[in-house]
Amino acid sequence: MPAANSDNGADAHLTLDRLRALVGSGRIDTVLLAVPDLQGRLKGKRYNARHFCERVAHQGAEMCAYVLATDVDMRPLDGFTLASWETGYQDIVVTPAISTLRLVPWMPGTALVLGDVADRHGEPIEVAPRQMLRRQLTHLAAHGLHVKTGLETEFVLYQGTGDQNMTPLTAENLDFALDHTPVALPFFRRLEAGLAGAGLPVEAVKTEGAGGQVEVTFPYGEPLAACDGHLVFKHAARTLATRMGLTPTFMAAPQTGIGSGLHLHLSLWKNNTSVLTDPDGALSTLAEHAVAGLLDALPQLGPLYAPNINSYKRYVPSSFAPTAFTWGYDNRTCAIRVVGHGENLHLEVRVPGADANPYLATAAVVAAIAYGLDRTPPLPSEQSGNAYRDMTAPPLAHTLEEALTWFSESTIAEARFGREVVQHYTRLAQVELDHQRALVPDTERARWLLHA
Fold it and tell me: Do 38 and 148 share a domain, yes or no?
């Protein structure tokens, strides 16, 4: 059943006046002010709703800058220009983006709003994920183009909480199944109802081929809003699952042989007309430049869509995850899949994993498209068969270390994102590598403990 306070989807998006009315009636008493962090999670504070309406909505709030300069464990770290021990871990200014204000039915009496961040002088923080995507959309707009985006994500649902005693919710392959378990079905219903009540109706939910794996797709929309909604969805999935004794994971490769992706579906528009097809339905010259840009630039932007060591364990042949930068029509063995017809024709970028920060992954894709439009690199031949067999196509990076080398030395990354952003995310990737380097995983013990 839906949680308390679940208005219908039309009422889920709030204006400030509507919020004041709900606060006055006693229906809302708390507002969450959230900033998307580098890992694609919501971080922020709970505010008394009256205080938010009277003060925070107009004057903004402050938050320690380290929320945009830390690893997944929220450790204070040196090496970031934005915030470190040397800077004294100063505050940044968070301005509520009122257009993102919404109800969150899975948290009674609560509304949520995302914030944009700036320094003390009012200058945007360029390494902030929302700002990075906004910048790339602005660059594309210089071509007279705008993007429509739909996100399709996979995750694995486990029975239990805590990583010691968890097992996948189901053991068998339930791909496209409609006979869901007595535990899965109530979770799906609660998730769908909660998201609809938050103004995020899903397009479809399906079980996937791996045990406990679920895929959720959302309708097309404006890219920034799509990424905002993705973080709200992950918050809902985690909150509702925990209440049922379940745990969702968005790891790219949570177990050997299992890979979860975050597929980005994008189309390009000029005014109200799709520009990916010619009048005869063929791929337009502009679309060819866009695809060529993706194939040329994405190899150099790996840490933005595959940020962790685990991310690269998803890129396995015959796994439906790409292993090389290829493209083809309706071909799921490719990195870039051209799919649909007429105005519905779009590009499905299959490279990001479920662990990707959606703002960063989408920013990388938009930047690569703009690069293709600017530089018009040659488009390789399409793949009409099994792209895994093509040994001549440029491979995806095999490791985070390899991807980091390409990224940190990339002229494309620096030209499209700026040196500040490249240095910031280089440091973040290096933190991940340093953290793992000294750890001995169970797989090494199992292979060598008795044989070395």
Answer: no
